[in-house]
Model the fold of this input.
Amino acid sequence: MRSKAIATIAQPTTPAVTELPEDQHWWFASRTWALLNLLDVSVRRREGDVLDIGCGAGNMIHHLSRYGQVKGIELDTRPVAMAQARGYDVRLGDATRGIPFLDGSFDLVTVLDVIEHVDEDEQILREAYRVLRPGGILAISTPAFQWLWSHNDVLNGHKRRYSSRQLRERVERAGLRVRRMTFGFFLVFPMSAPLILWRNRMGKKPELSSHHFDQDAYQVEMEPVAPWLNRILRGVGRLEAEMVKRVDLPFGTSLMCVAEKAK
Done:
């Protein structure tokens, strides 16, 4: 594949951020714990080069820095400005048109809740493959099950939700070997799935803002949760993250995949 040239500039070190406000929300915290547990058993190098595709304002960079020096690429100028103000090496770019890094530049590439937003989802995966080093790891998270489509998907600007088969096929067509494929939010699924279906049936819409409709916002707000319930759901998320260390969960509202580029 054709290499992509990049200007040589001084790179800042990843700042020592330990927590952001969204880390306290049960949904973000649960996803983060599960992803890190998946990656902890898959990533060989802990001082490697990491790329977060569709990184937003860099809200995952302080978590991913445990695996090395993190760079990000983001399509929207607003979160790029916020990430750069935080001191992160985040660049404006469209991964569907080519990631501005050379072939084989990274040991770990993450694509977290990104591919569902674009028509060219497989192009992002092919670009992730290109910039990975042999033996490098790709981590993906994305919404699961098209039958769970709701107003939240519209609000977030989603194009689709994925089955495990659909995601696996796309990852393998990009040239990667799937090492782990597990659902997320498995333990809350018996409550969350009926709630989503009931809201769809009743036409209920959560009161949230979105950057797809509000030009002053750069991300969708998470649905507010009472502090006591947030604590309980965080505890459930901790338990599920421990389960993910050992077993692939059979269903849930999201999918997580860890894949490897052949050496």
